[in-house]
Amino acid sequence: MHMIWQNLIPQLIKLWTGDFNDMDAGLKDYHLRLNAWNAVCDACIPSKRTIPSSFGCPVPDPRKPSHFIAESWNIFTTQLAPSLLYRQFSDEQYYQHFVRLVRILRLVVLFDLPRDKIPKIRRGLANGSKSMNKYIINLTRMITDLSGQRSLSAPRCRFHEYMGPVWCYWAFPMEQFCSFIVNSVKSRRYPYANIDKRVLNRARLQVILHKYQLIDKAPFTGQKRPEESDGATIVRGYPLAFLLSPHSTPLRVDRHLRRQIVRYLTTSFEILSDAAEALIPDELEQWGRLRIGNGGNEVHALNLTAQYKLMVDQDAELVSVSERLEEESQYGELRHVFVLTIPPKTPKINPALKKNRYLLLAQIYEAPIESNKIEDEKLIWYKGKLGTGEVVDVSTIQCAVGRIKDGNRWWIVDRSTDNTFAYPEFID
């Protein structure tokens, strides 16, 4: 996999920018448009402020490849480049070729890889190798990008069938073990002597721990994996919403927010606006972060983008037609997460005689989303200002998403379709 991120992708970029061994495109036209690469690089630099840290490490300036590691090339290729390179090629077929490559690479590094997708990966990589020769290699000079061919051919083997997804034997265990043994190197002249000693001592220690049944006793147990609920507040009725600090400052309800809460209550519970108005105090308890349970993202209420789902009337423009509600994904800036307390004996909302009901709500400024689909790659963006805002139930928030500013356009980076929100746990 390192060959793909650290060899294939940088060489593709050199081909696109005309910087591959001082060679021109010859009979082909796979170069980027004039100044397109500089625009892509300029968009990557500030992206670390608008891409959640859970997506991976920040992407540096691509004009400085020495600042990249395999992870940053991975993030640039699979998350940022499909959007930033849209309509930046002189010939659109080269962008389509790149998108097909990205789709295959995403399949290769999936956390959960169904067996029936393995033939698709093999076919995709084989076709990618052929199309590289067809679209990119200058046939008049018989240039062969050998490292690129090896990179695309590597996953054709049966590792996926016998050993599971790539992360089982590359992304985590191998990298962690390499870091473990490399840290033991003290001599540049005799590095392997240090490595051998470290591995041998580690093996001896493991034998002792198992022989005397010390593996589960302190101080050999290691650090306890934190629970999702550690340090979090849980509101009754929302078991998968973990509320985190900052928490001290109350949310003052202005006229604009009050109207949005009234609209939510009247729409969701079919009560009158006067009754809804009476339920809203002047100040509400709020939290600055929301952690979604079952391995979900941590979403900050700091004008960062989130994906949420609402029921939308598909025939809203037709007055004489009854409602036809379908669930749709929405995107917007999360501004506030707060709780609204509903007292007992409140008709249609809280019919209980003694217990309060708590509504955990979020204020989101919706984005006017547009989308386009190319080679099964869905590109999502918006232009202009955000909407006036709306209040939704926190349970509708699905995940955190990133965004990249590209001129007057904001590209949305949504991993939810390729992410099962599950994370491996490694034990020693």
Molecular structure report:
This protein folds into three domains: 2-171, no CATH class; 174-211, no CATH class; 233-413, no CATH class. The strands form three sheets. Strands 3, 4, 7, 8, 9, 12 and 13 form a seven-stranded antiparallel β-sheet that branches. The chain has a four-stranded antiparallel β-sheet with strand order 1-2-5-6, with no helix packed on it. A four-stranded antiparallel β-sheet has the order 10-11-15-14, covered by helices on one side. Helix 1 packs across helix 6 (146-153), helix 4 (92-108) packs antiparallel against helix 5 and helix 5 runs antiparallel to helix 6. The chain has 428 residues and is of the alpha+beta class. The two termini are 24 Å apart. The protein has helices spanning 2-16, 36-44, 70-84, 92-108, 118-136, 146-153, 159-163, 173-182, 191-211, 255-269, 273-278; strands spanning 233-234, 241-244, 251-252, 283-287, 289-292, 298-300, 304-313, 325-342, 357-366, 369-374, 377-383, 390-393, 397-400, 402-406, 409-413. A hairpin with a 5-residue loop joins strand 5 and strand 6. The longest helix has 21 residues, at 191-211. The protein has eleven helices and 15 strands.
